[in-house]
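Obj.: predict assembly geometry.
Materials: sequence records (below).
Method: joint structure prediction, all chains together.
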Amino acid sequence: MKMEEVSMSSLDNSKLEGLAQDILSDLVEDACLGLCFEVHRAVKQGYFFLDDTDQESMRDFEIVDQPGLDVFGQVYNQWKNKECVCPNCSRSIAASRFAPHLEKCLGMGRNSSRIANRRIVTGNNTNNKSESDQEDNDDVNDNDWSYGAEKKAKKRKSEKNPNSPRRSKSFKHKSRPAQAFMGP
Amino acid sequence: MSKDSQMRAAINQKLIEMGERERLKELLRAKLVECGWKDQLKAHCKDVIREKGLEHVTVEDLVTDVTPKGRALVPDSVKKELLQRIRAFLAQHATL
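Observations (raw structure tokens):
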């Protein structure tokens, strides 16, 4: 039994070796065919002999390495100082400022909506300021859930009335809990 | 004999299904480019094309002319490396 097994395994090995060779042969043939197709396509599309041009033409297309020019020899900052006319407000704007200007002018883009929102909230607050209690102002300022509070956190200081009784915040914070419990 | 061909078919299928054949193909291609085989063969193609004429070259012309030369030009080191990988795969996945 053992001897049979040994001979069996050597047979298998030669079989396996033959199989491996065949697989390699297939792979090589695939590679050759791939190359043939590639070359044939290049011939039919006309780009096969492209790198065989004469020296003179080669020199025409050499990479350009001069200041102020890109690799193709084109001037690349020539449009920086040109002016464009805005289609919306008909003003003459510098080219590099044109895109941001359009954003504001047309009312589109991320910043424009933020500014618009801010204006709405500011508009509401300035309308209500004369009517609301000090407490309400506190709530608008300290309450994290308020929509406008976060965005206006920075602007708040500049909008503060220097004469408002709320000036000294620390004093207010101490008395506030008492106020809240006691009601309006 | 049919058991033999059955086994071969099974192995080939496994080779493809596990993506190993694709990997081997890519490996072979990369090696052949690296060792200059592709450029050599391309130069030979140029001769064939010039001979047959640019307009009249067919795929068959190229294949019949290029394939035998291509086979012969594969360096031994590349063959060895590929065979090693194939044998490893067979050792792992060939059930007899």
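Conclusions so far: The radius of gyration of chain B is 17 Å.
To do: check interface contacts against the pulldown list.
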